[in-house]
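Entry type: protein chain
Record version: 2
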Amino acid sequence: MTEEPVMNESKKPNEPTKLDDFQIPYDGAQFNVLELSSRDEPEWSWERLHQSRQILDSLPMGIGLVVHGKLLFLNRRMAEILADTGESNLVGRDFLGFIPLGCQQLVAKSLRNALATSALTPVGETDFIRTNGKLITTHMIVRAIKFEEQDAVLALLSEISPLPAMPASTEVPWKEAADPLQENAHETTEAVRVLLERIDDLTQQCESLRRRGQLIGAIFDEAQDLVFSKDINLRYTFVNPAMQKLHGRSASEILGLSADDLMPGEAGKRVNAVDARVIAGETVEEVYTTPIHGIPLTFHGIRAPLRNPAGHIIGMFGIVRNITDNKGIRNPELSPAKRSYPSRVMKETLLQAQSVAASDGTVLLLGESGSGKDFMAKWIHDHSKRADGRFFSINCAAVSGELADSELFGHEAGAFTGARTAKKGLLQLAEGGTLLLNEIGEFSLPLQAKLLTFLDTKSFLRVGGEQIIHVNVRIMAATHRVLANEVAEGRFLAPLFYRLNVLKLDVPPLRERVEDIPIIAREIISSLAKEMQLKRVPEFDSSSLYALANYHWPGNVRELKNVVERALMLWKGGSLRIDTRSLDVIPEPWSHKVNLDADRSLHEVLDEVARALCVESVRRCNGSKTKAARMLGISRGVLYRSMKRTNMSRDFET
């Protein structure tokens, strides 16, 4: 009669085991074989098996955990020995069910002896019936361990390679042919000895790994950087104390969560999108800003794939540093998002910019030199889904053709004379953010062609490099030139023009938005006062504002900033006065552009023109509303009512 292993009375022998309980992810943790085979060690649990899976799967022998006669865990090699279909079909099955009937009694006895003695018990040569019905011969060793407060048996299998078949003409000596059991016994003993030596070697190696793991663990515990790992489903499998402190949660509360759970909203979606690229095989380095407990923090992070010994990706790890500079946080009062510009043309432009920010396409900004195209690009970035990422800008006209390629795409060490080390280009530095190519019409044709390739593939080669680099960055281009004319003259590639001209936005010159000059001037003086570390921000003298509004600004916002900066450098206290002698105050011919929309009536259009004429007359009369009314041939009261609907009446009060 076949002997069966002793079963726990609280669990029925034939009660099925839930397979979901045993789907242990493969996460790359370290494992000590000695801990599995010693009852002096703390008892084993599913969590310990989970942490040790990588080492278990890398061992050359099959390892199975038998509890109450059921095979509850097996490594990759054990699954290969018993079946070809993977462990999901094996977990929960009776271990003795894989043993031929004639051998079940001997194996069951060995299991009972192991449980009784807690000693390493060689079973010897043992046949197993694979799921496809074929026999496989192994050497088996068993040992008792504690698992989840229960007695369990650890089975170690080493497959016996079949001897090559002898040719028919070969004569077998009578002694060997007559006494095969004795020869097999010798082979079995030798195989067990080799297997035990292999276990000892692995034990020593894993003990060394354990000590190294303790050292690395101590470093991670003390590190100020955030260190974490995730499985292929992008769920956290390890977080160090710095990570726990930042989010205000313990490791047990974070493990098993995804970035969506930890950082709800766009921040979590952005992190998951980056991590998905890492699981696909990329190494991603980026700088990004994300809100933690409502406070925007800036991080520099590196994420890379985790691979098993076979080279397969089993997860990812990341090291992230908080690089938030408290001195660099923008004053909310000066943020463009908090400002409202009174001019109609700027309101319409910002409305278009809001629509552009909602998409992620390439943007082409057109406008005169100095009109604020870089400001508009930053405004779009700050109002887009990429606001957490970095914003970079390069003036293509200020970089020589030889260096522009390196600045944009980066270079490898030794790529050219002076390139002693590798350098990342702006495209790679802007990972997850936005890059503005200002004055793109100044790029050379070869560089335009390389940029076109990048826009089509989102990948590039560094100068002198051989590895293709993929980045996720939004491109904005700006120019004061008419690119269509540049294409006709052969100075700009037509395919690149069409590729850039996806979303086009015209930035108005300053002379078309004079109502905004007081606000822009105050923004400039606040920013300059902060840079110059002044104790207070001076207020403009009223006559100075009149002078600023009465100038036609051929240099646009850039010229306005230079004028204000010069006045601030010469400021001695009190109100800030603008030296009008440096300005050409001769009025230029004036015009006003009107947009005739289908939803605007004639009265509304005439009302807009009337207000614009009033504003221009006040400018030409140096802020005197009485003189302005006389110039227009209207009463001062009519002038006041016409200007009441604009902020000019407040900023130029006489």
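Comment: The longest helix spans residues 180-222.
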